[in-house]
Design a protein that fits this description.
Thiol Ester Dehydrase, Chain A; single chain; 2 domains; globular; alpha+beta; six-stranded antiparallel sheet; 12 strands
Length: 295
């Protein structure tokens, strides 16, 4: 109840969480600068994830009356491809449908402080993917305090001046299944010891999806795409995967704080030995940790 312990306490008001369902219908993009930048074999999972993110935030403000000044923070998020067939591009227009279920969390005066999100993805009528997320809406003062604390922790043991790389260092686009260098988010490995790779996450200023904008912290799509690109680099280096034929089919993330756009960001990748799925395709699981300074 966020109040000191007292001899007596009274629950004055409570609202039971009620699930709400929404649907998003969209044609999968055919000529987008990010979502169609690659070998063109599969539709981009990033489009489904970004659609789910934007739809959830829109619904929060439009239907759950969350004030616009409360920043939305993803505590955890996940995406799965359950059937690769519908994700293959055929050269013809394809349609995506998202069925979204939102459950309010910690409702105060009729306004939720968070949302639990579940989404089901269908392409051309075939169920083929899913997504989950836990979203919190922070009061502006709490948001600023979290940012300030994280920044202090990141600067421990470093010079306190803001970090601005003089030259943007990134791997060749084909190594991460991209064509446009502006969409490459990871640089060459800084070190690789006993199968553990540490890669810098390169900035993408001016990119319509990966630029942090005026908020100053690294946006969520950067972590998903940087995860995919770092995993692709390591899967190719360690296990011989071909980037143009490697597909991210499972992604789950837990967020502990904000990433700052003016501080160096690295990701550490550890890999298990590859296995084969039921269809005989090689599959590898990787664990990725993003770090800024000591945080």
């Amino acid at each position: 109840m966020h109040r000191p312990a007292t001899p007596e306490g009274f629950l004055l008001d409570a609202t039971a969480p009620v699930e709400q369902r929404f649907a998003l219908s969209a044609e999968l993009p055919d000529t987008h600068g990010v979502f169609n930048d690659g070998p063109g074999t599969f539709h981009d999972l990033l489009f489904a994830a970004e659609s789910l993110r934007q739809a959830t935030q829109f619904v929060a403000h439009q239907y759950f009356r969350v004030p616009a000044e409360r920043p939305a923070v993803f505590v955890s998020s996940g995406m799965d491809i359950q059937d690769l067939g519908p994700w293959r591009r055929t050269g013809r227009p394809a349609h995506m449908a998202l069925d979204i279920t939102l459950t309010p969390v910690d409702v105060v005066n009729g306004i939720p402080r968070g949302l639990d999100c579940r989404g089901a993805v269908a392409i051309d009528g075939e169920q083929c993917g899913s997504g989950t997320a836990r979203l919190l809406f922070l009061m502006p003062g709490v948001y600023r305090a979290h940012r300030a604390l994280g920044r202090r922790e990141s600067l421990q043991g470093q010079v306190s001046a803001p970090f601005r790389p003089a030259v943007r260092s990134a791997v060749a686009p084909e190594r991460v299944a991209r064509l446009d260098p502006r969409n490459v988010l990871v640089g060459p490995p800084l070190r690789a010891i006993d199968g553990e790779f540490v890669l810098p996450v390169a900035a993408a200023p001016g990119n319509e999806l990966f630029d942090g904008g005026s908020e100053g912290h690294i946006p969520g799509p950067v972590f998903l795409e940087a995860s995919r690109q770092a995993a692709t680099v390591v899967a190719a280096e360690l296990h011989g995967f071909r980037p143009a034929h490697a597909v991210l089919t499972h992604w789950w993330a837990s967020f502990r704080g904000f990433g700052e756009t003016d501080l160096p960001l690295t990701c550490t990748v550890t890999s298990r030995e590859p296995l084969r799925d039921r269809a005989g395709r090689p599959t590898v699981r990787l664990r990725i940790t993003f770090s800024q300074g000591s945080r």
